[in-house]
Amino acid sequence: MNRIVLITGAGSGMGFDAACRFLENGDRVIGCDRLESGLELLQARADYQGAIFDPFLLDLAQFDSFVPTVEHVKSLGKLDVLVNCAGICSGTPLETITEEEWDHTYQVNVKGPFFLTRMLLPFLSKGKEPTIINISSMAGFTGGIKSNPAYSSSKAAVTCMTKNLAKYCAPMGIRVNEISPGTARTAMTKNWLDPQTLDGFTSQVPMGRLAEAGDIAKVIFFLASDGAGFMTGQSLHVNGGMYIP
User: pTM of the prediction?
Assistant: First the structure.
């Protein structure tokens, strides 16, 4: 066994693929998700591989749901990698987005990840070459295309939070970076973009295809490696050239 890795949003998409990659590497994965189905699939994969997987139901909009996960990390004594991958997005137009949806988007995408991270910092400080990896979005840099302003601005907030945490955590030996994916074929995107609209984005990608969950998982794994050992406070854009800062 190598590292102890905690991933939110592990039940689907980028989080699922990242969890699979860490499990294949022999890492112990604490997989958190709001839904049970994806965690059950990861458990089956881990059992087949002889890897250790600890599933927890966790809703970033409900702080009480953090407690079992944090207590479990406490029992292990340390945490090496934290991947804040869970997030939500809708295509609700600017004209009709409600105050409740705006607040819920920020709760899940910004507030929840921040307070979970803060609760886990004491254990990360005891980890081996500890690192935090946040998942932002190209929309946080461009203002989005079809996503609503709640999502785009919440992801811009994640970017600023990443930079602030990187400065705060550096003296503790904890690196903090983020990945900013472009339009990707994931369950979240498919929830609010119909297949024809999603396919239409392909023409905007110089590399000729949309991102897949596995493309992001590879970069998550890299940022958790010693190959990124002197990187902190950085935003890595994984979008096939769709957006070039």
Answer: 0.95
